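Usage example:
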Amino acid sequence: MATVTLNKVVKRFGAFEVVHGANIDVKDGEFVVFVGPSGCGKSTLLRMIAGLEDISGGEIAIGGKVVNDVEPADRGIAMVFQSYALYPHMSVEQNLSFGLRMTGNPKADTERRVKRAAEILRISELMDRRPRKLSGGQRQRVAIGRAIVREPQVFLFDEPLSNLDAELRVQMRIEIARLHKELGVTMIYVTHDQTEAMTLADRIVVLNAGNIEQIGAPLDLYDDPANRFVAGFVGSPKMNFMAAKVVATEKDAAVVELLNHGGARLRKSLSSAPPAVGADVVLGVRPEHFCEAGEGDCDIPVRADVAEHLGSVSYVYANAGPEELIIEREASRQRASGDHLVVSIKAGRSLLFDTSGARIR
Amino acid sequence: MRNRNATAYRFLTPYLLIFAVFWVWPIISSFLISFQATRTVPWRFAPAFNWGRLIGDPAFFNALKNTLLILVIQVPVMIALAMVMAVLLNSPLLKARGLYRFAFFAPVVVGEVAYSAVFRLMFNLNFGIINKLLNSVGLPSIDWFSNVTPAMALIMIAVTWRWAGYNAIILLAGMQSIPEDVYEAATLDRVSKLKQFFFITLPLLKPVIVFCLVLSIIGTMQLFTEPFLITERGGPGGGTETLGLLLYRQGFRSLNFGYASAVAYTMAGLAIAITLVQLWLTREKQ
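Running the assembly step on the lines above writes:
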């Protein structure tokens, strides 16, 4: 078990900088998820921790020891790849034991480790099979098993579930959470799927275009995002953003007018100085935070374009156009396209951002 | 659907006609001719005339021995060399990769007569650069064209020079199809580059290596150009005569078509047999 510390880590490919000075402290035994859209640098960051990519600037320390110039095999890490990266010509047993056999690990110890990994992952009956005879989920277990036999201080997962179907993904997600609990080892997990991040992580690192947007516990990011990017990325369906203008200010509040919703006004309490009157702002409201007309602080009329009924809840997609809103409603089979309804926003459950995306608190 | 097939076959007809006349018919015809005595007029059916002769013909066994000797020595050496070249071409450290790729592949596109002439000059006893190089390191000159062993070695060197690059390109394509993350996983497993080559690259390349071996076996069984042009029609004294050359000598110098056809079928049969044995030996074990 070990801590992982990234100190001003930079990655450049030629002149192109893809990671701009990342600072992250992963605690011993913690499950940290790097999440962000494609190309945000999350996999590059993970590969730098693994030693598969050179570090262009800054320092990476594992267990308190700077590993910038340490070979990947000597960093005490094990990695699970998106494509599983199993050796196709070897059986499951050979896949698990290959690294240990090649490095002359005592046979009895190799057998013990392989047996233990197989038991943890419940793949003991698959040991003689080749990877191509395994299902996607089984392959993923073998890939994780190969990491377990190394008995690493840190597990690295690079989008391990993205090649699996939805049902298997949920199942494997639970398996990985169970594994973390059982092994108690530090885990760093990369995904673009915010649901995976929310369900697995002790802490989430949200990345965007090579920058860390926010680091925090899943529900902290959900409740208290640092900026519009995090607010939009965390939560499913994503947060609604409505163009607004500050029409009046008080000492600790601003009154905003929603520009695309019939001039509806909302008084938003703030803990900092409010923006100037006339400033353009953006109001963010999560789909699940709309309430029935009259129950909130600001009613807005909408026209439903499409309604998705999921059984437990319904999502209404309203006002197709420049500012489509997604509204979560109680399960209802009646609501359909063309319906007019009035929903309400609670000021306390809305967030305010300036036009650059920074949060106005 | 039937209509579409009919249309397709109408388009294919010109090709199929040419294929039937110039490919299928000669194959059948030569098989039939191999059972005929073609040195009498008119030809007569006499199975033992050619096939019987083949069994007791020292020239045939000499050509067979030479062909198999080249096959056994040259093909493995060439594939091993091609593998080394492919590894070098695949190395991320290599600069000017395109230039090397071209250089390795170039021998295939050089005209056979031209390259044979250059080899004859290079290996010339008196003024060839090879002998000059040997002399410069204190070794005596070798008469490459008058002694059997050097002449055979020369044939093998020439064939290897011509085809190693071609096989290297095929092996390179195979190497590049192995996913990079398999090597990354091995690197994390502390497996050295050398062990990665022997335990990952080679096993995963096996189908490609087998393909190269089959192509090379077929090519060597038909070997003709080099012994014909470089060692002057299988010289010295038949020392480098191959089955291909024997076929040519019998069929087109002595106009003994029946015997030449029997030799041709023997070559094809041997190529198929050796290939099948090799495929069996390298089959995927379950």
